[in-house]
Amino acid sequence: MNEENLRKIQAITEAALLAAGKPMSLEQLRDLFTDDERPARQVMEHVLVLLESACEGRGFELKKVASGYRLQVREEYAPWVSRMFEEKPQRYSRALLETLALIAYRQPITRGEIEDIRGVTVSSNIIRTLLEREWVKVVGHRDVPGRPAMYATTRQFLDYFNLSGLDQLPPLSEVRDLEEIGREIEKNIQAEIEFESSAAADENTDDEGAGQPEPDTESNQTLH
């Protein structure tokens, strides 16, 4: 394939990712083209490498996450870009962040197992918020009396935190306790800025349906 065709495919890919406002998989990008012009998978991968290189030194980057590829503002420019939006990112209680961290690292895990580790009851509002945000999902039921639901993280969780897989989470050996994990997750929440303002508007809509985070009454608990 000649350079002119590669540049055209690269431009189409860039335009599609800018318009999508969400990650697109390799196959979704290839499906933009008609059968007679559809690039081979290897060509599409090469185009994405070219696009990534073209973003170097610019305010945005090509990022691969669990659901595919997206164009997004570089994290170091988030403090300036965030001033464009009046609504600030929603803050979550320590209890919710610790629950999310346990699900991410111990999945699949039941609510009872989370409570055993944390030593306190997990509020139904926390589980409901995580489900409504589509950060966790029910993946089965433990084969014990009562058949409690087992929870695991989702592709949306990975996408939101700029991860392509769970193997990109920091190793537990590098994390001292659940509170530290919670602070890291909260930092990522505050830093996350979508490239498209339309995507930011969609995120705000999701927040309205997710309910308000409950006051953290468990912050004085000591975790081991």
List the helices and strands and how they pair.
Blueprint: H1 3-20, H2 26-30, H3 41-54, E1 60-65, E2 68-73, H4 78-81, H5 94-106, E3 109-110, H6 111-118, H7 124-132, E4 136-141, E5 149-153, H8 155-160, H9 178-191, H10 197-210
Antiparallel strand pairs: 1-2, 3-5, 4-5
Helix pairs in contact: 1-3, 5-9
Describe the protein's architecture and organization.
- The chain is mostly helical and 224 residues long.
- The protein is built from ten helices and five strands; from the N terminus they run H-H-H-E-E-H-H-E-H-H-E-E-H-H-H.
- It has helices at 3-20, 26-30, 41-54, 78-81, 94-106, 111-118, 124-132, 155-160, 178-191, 197-210; strands at residues 60-65, 68-73, 109-110, 136-141, 149-153.
- Mean pLDDT is 79; it is low at 193-224.
